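New to this. Please check both lines:
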Amino acid sequence: MYNSRVAGGTVSTGSDNRIFIYEVVGLRQNEETDKTNYSINRSGSVFIPVPFKRMNQEMQRINRMGGTIVSIRPQNADGAVNGKVTPQLGQQRKQPTQESKPMTQAKAKSDIPVNIYRPKDPFVGRCLDNQTIIREGAIGKVRHVVFDISGGDLRYLEGQSIGIIPPGEDANGKPHKLRLYSIASTRHGDYGDDKTISLCVRELEYKHPETGETVYGTCSSYLCNLEKDADVKITGPVGSSFLLPEDPNANVIMMATGTGIAPFRAFLWRMFKEKHEDYKFNGSAWLIFGIATTPNILYKEELEELQSEFGDHFRMDYAISREQKNQKGGKMYLQDRIAENAEQMWRLLQQENTHTFICGLKGMEGGIDEALSLVAAKEGVNWSEFQKQLKKNNRWHVETY
């Protein structure tokens, strides 16, 4: 994590004319970043030249856009930084060759692999398995897809994502852009041999607002219908802010809707299903899972098996909107289940070793905040301010779409 005091001490001796290069990761595409004049790629670093006198303002701007500053280095007159030429505004790091080592990012003493494979030179994996994970009567189409990655250098951590590049061209005759998917397996893969990576994919399906025609998502349909042994182009991995805490005694609260369960499947497998010499989870895991119907509960058998075997350390609550009722007689959504358990969750959040993760549809955040605001207010605490402190301490993690 970037430390402003260290950065300030490094640059305070320079003149106002000096230029510093901010290396930034995690800039997200939104209205604010669209206003900038440099390219943004969530799967890569962006190098931003910053005059000395604007360093503080730039730090604040990057923070607002969701970016993380991983390094600040002075730029020499010839454009070099520490003896190496720095990419100019909007340029990305050069793609590593087969002979070079894959690029990684380090954070908090952890080796976090990032951007080992990029869109211009993706890794070509192979589909090993593609199975439905919903049951008869379920809504939609959801698949668990496993890829063979033994032929390359792709490695990843629980909580990261990979990009998938679907074949073919869009309506403008250009190659399809990659789509990001949360990884649903641990770093060792579903088979425990470090040779696979898995995704949980729901096929996007909707009615065209003008024609009424059924439209299917380009990449999700491609993945859901992928045949065994088919090749697939993979980029990444990306992400350094949604990782399972290294503390084996942590309290881990997980809130998911639909395919947002994917990273939490990886968390739970690492916690309970795998055996590790350097990691044994002794903390408390709590999953609140929102779905439409019982047949739509993804990984149902796996989850309930873990709960049965590790009930002392793993609690699970469903919020099944089309079957269960909340306290007011309406549909039971995830935020309603949280409201029912808000006091217990509030007590956990006040413990310094509690980490909260939210993954799924973007609309879920407001309901969660509302439920926790009410219980916090009972103790005279402003939830918004309390939540800001959780984020600052890297204890509140959100990945919604």
The CA atoms of residues 321 and 332 lie 5 Å apart.
